[in-house]
Amino acid sequence: MKKCYLVFSMLGIILIACNSPKQKEIAKAVVAKAEPNTVVDRVTRGKQLVASIGCNDCHSPKIMTERGPEVDAERRLSGHPSQENLPPYDKETSKSYVLFTMGLTATVGPWGTSFAANLTPDETGIGNWSEAQFLKAIKEGKFKGMDNTRPLLPPMPWTEYRNLPDEDLKAIFAYLKTIKPIDNVVPAAILATPQPLEAK
After folding, report:
1. Which of 30, 43, 44, 178 lies deepest, with the highest CB count within 10 Å?
2. Euclidean distance between CA atoms 113 and 128, whole angstroms
């Protein structure tokens, strides 16, 4: 019986101590310290997303290794290299196929030829873009995230990425703004036929 009183007494003391103003302040300080810095948290989330959803597949030049093409870390996310000319290809065959260059940064298909954009924060990439432009590019499929521009071209899967929550898209943009800027002017798309300005 004495043990029961002792246990209840200890619980009472703990509850009273936890409800004291000083204890509440200590608890608030601990919680505030534990809350992540939202900017760092957003950048970390963006880094995870960029690594997971295939951005490097098309937007990063590759180097050939014994395991096949791998991302060139020095040119990561800088888009199709400006000095890289497309090799010749059979235009008749290409009517029935989609062709990729060895580095996967340029694609030929019925729409013409598209080149992966420079996603680095250099002025030749997204350095001058606003967050709103980035969201418009992904959500509406607008070139450079601007009204009255052509649609984003295949193979950019913006019709899938537009389903990501805005917070994830903002995280991707925040992360891209922290990576190494790379000066690389990506060639303009070569359109097979005039493209309508409104994305579908």
Report:
1. 43
2. 25
Cβ-proximal residues to 74 (8 Å cutoff; 6+ apart), any chain: none
Q: Half-sphere exposure of residue 194, counting CA atoms within 13 Å on the CB side?
A: 2
SS3 content of the chain, % helix, strand, coil (to 5): 40, 10, 45
* Owner of token pair 């991707």: 172
Residue 64: strand pairing partners: 69
Indicate the SS3 state at residue 119: coil
Give the predicted TM-score (pTM) of the model: 0.76
Cβ(58)–Cβ(155) below 8 Å: yes
User: H or E stretch including 8?
Assistant: helix 2-18
- The residues near 106 (Cβ < 8 Å, ≥ 6 apart) are 80, 84, 86, 100, 113, 114, 115, 116
Dist CA 36 CA 118 (whole Å): 30
Contact yes or no for 43/166 (Cβ under 8 A): no
Q: Quick one: DSSP state of residue 183?
A: -
Angle at 153 between CA 152 and CA 155, to 5 degrees: 120
pLDDT per position as a tens digit, 128-186: 999 999 999 999 999 999 999 999 999 999 999 999 999 999 999 999 999 999 999 99
Element holding 99 (H helix, E strand): strand 99-100
